[in-house]
Design a protein that fits this description.
21 helices; single chain; globular; 2 domains
Length: 528
């Protein structure tokens, strides 16, 4: 019992630390997006850049980022091989690391070369409904950024090792390096009409993001020495068995984004840029939540699974506590998006080339995307449990089955119901819900998770959320009658409505005797 309490305390401490670091990194990402929006707006140039960026992003964010397949496979395997995190890794661990790194380097180098050589057919396939000017510019951008593909898998291994050794700060802080490079480059260039400087800056920033990991890994004791120990290597086989389906799962998920890109290219100029910016805003609070709680939890899931069936009850407790906390915090985020999205988007982006029409497009996309927050956090949480059991096949199968659903929903909502940009993000919300439900049902084949208490609390949170939304919507509409200068008005409104939302939401949850609200209230009293 003492171990559980110590672990829980450690998780909470790590979660706060990761949250603070991630907030800093996300704010820098917002600053980057504001600069990009100011210089390029929601135009053909920004569309070309974001279309071209999608495959490099698949490598460095989806595959190699925190929570991606390479990070997850590394944590799942190495956390079971390193009993003492304070000592230097043993020789066989270093050897496994170098085998994994060598094979990854060779494969991703090949992928980067293929991306550069076949840039034209790839972009023509992804944005086949786009104009020739858009496609040609996207090809130029993609060729410039294709080396980022090489970086993706490698940085994922580095992140995984650092997290395994409880070095949580650097993996979550280093993405801001890319943002800083992009901001400086654009501001110095000033007149980058084709976005070429933006593409080169993204490449240089990604390289810097990789290089900054080396000193920390060397300090832990890892050394780079190419190795090809593949024959009868059971631990490397464990990595591959987990990694390959996880990569396919992420790739399948990425295919749904390519489907979105195709449908967005049939809409008006700036449509895809609007979807990208909506996702960036969405990922700010949600990414912080998921990263802060799941990064420290995942190694514990893996360790408990490795210790056998006697530890399964602890897995259930950690899972319910983590997901319940994520739900509790996610609901007011949805409320604030639905009531303040337009004001927030305008405050962040509306300047320079980013006009009021672009604000409306991003707002529309963001509001419909907000409905995916609850299934999103559940899906990402339960996926870590699958990975802890060395099962990445089930998430892959579910992700694969989502492709047809995504294509059908886009066709229905965009082409038949004429929902435009909103159709893209609404279909994403439905697909995320489908994934969450299927993963939640099929996990019973491995462990019987106790959903009853989790969903009793969830119903209370939803009821509190609906009542809070009503109060916030009324307050928001009343505030709109007040006349103030634009940016002052938006800033004051966001602060006041956000404060009101948190107070009312907490009060309703306390009245409903909701566990997480009581714990939060008790912590505040203790700090006094």
């Amino acid at each position: 019992m003492t171990t559980i309490k110590n672990d829980a305390s450690g998780i909470l401490h790590a979660a706060w630390m990761i949250a603070l670091v991630t907030i800093l990194s996300k704010f820098m990402g917002f600053a980057r997006d504001m600069v990009v929006a100011n210089f390029y707006g929601a135009t053909l140039v920004s569309d070309a850049y974001f279309y071209a960026l999608q495959i490099p992003s698949l490598a460095i964010i989806i595959l190699g980022g925190v929570g991606g397949p390479f990070h997850s496979a590394t944590v799942a395997v190495f956390s079971k091989l390193i009993p003492n995190l304070n000592s230097k890794p043993e020789e066989y661990v270093n050897k496994l690391y170098n085998t994994f790194l060598t094979i990854t380097f060779l494969l991703f180098t090949l992928f980067a070369i293929l991306g550069f050589v076949f840039a034209e057919p790839i972009m023509k396939l992804i944005i086949s409904a786009g104009s020739p000017e858009l496609i040609n510019l996207a090809i130029q951008h993609f060729r410039i950024m294709s080396p980022i593909i090489l970086i993706g898998g490698i940085i994922g291994i580095f992140y995984g090792l650092l997290v395994t050794h409880k070095r949580f700060v650097l993996p979550n802080l280093s993405p801001m390096i890319l943002s800083i490079v992009v901001i400086i480059s654009i501001c110095l260039a000033k007149n980058d009409k084709c976005g070429i400087v933006l593409a080169f800056a993204t490449l240089i920033g990604a390289i810097c993001q990789l290089i900054i990991q080396f000193p920390a890994l060397r300090k832990i004791g890892y050394r780079i020495k190419p190795n090809f120990d593949l024959i009868n290597n059971s631990q490397f086989n464990n990595i591959i068995e987990l990694l390959f389906p996880a990569i396919l799962s992420s790739t399948m998920g990425q295919i749904t984004i390519y489907i979105d890109m195709f449908f967005a290219s049939t809409l008006k100029e700036g449509a895809w840029t609007s979807v990208v910016f909506a996702n960036r805003i969405f990922q700010f609070p949600v990414g912080i939540l998921v990263t802060a709680f799941l990064v420290p939890l995942f190694p514990i899931f893996s360790r408990l699974v490795g210790e056998g069936i006697d530890k399964y009850e602890e897995i259930k407790n950690y899972f319910n506590k983590g997901v319940g906390t994520l739900f509790f915090v996610a609901i007011p985020i949805i409320i604030l998006i639905l009531t303040l999205a337009k004001d927030g988007v305008s405050l962040i982006f509306e300047r320079g080339a980013f006009n009021s029409d672009a604000v409306i497009m991003v707002t529309e996309a963001l509001c419909f995307l907000s409905f995916s927050i609850l299934p999103y956090v559940f899906r990402d949480s339960i996926t870590r449990v699958y990975y802890a059991f060395n099962d990445s096949k089930t998430p892959f199968i579910i992700a694969m089955s989502s492709i047809a659903l995504k294509a059908f929903l886009n066709y229905l909502l965009i082409l038949k119901l004429n929902m435009g940009i909103a159709g893209i993000t609404l279909s994403t919300s439905f697909v995320t819900l489908f994934n969450a439900i299927m993963l939640g049902l099929l996990i019973n084949n491995k462990i019987k998770l106790a959903y009853k208490d989790l969903f009793i609390n969830f119903v209370k949170m939803i009821l509190a959320g609906v009542l809070t939304f009503g109060v916030c919507l009324f307050a928001s509409n009343y505030f709109d009658t007040i006349e103030l200068p634009k940016y002052i008005f938006e800033s004051i409104k966001i602060v006041l409505i956000s404060g009101l939302c948190l107070i009312i939401y907490t009060i309703f949850n306390l009245l409903f005797k909701m566990t997480y609200a009581k714990e939060l209230f008790n912590r505040i009293k203790l700090k006094r």
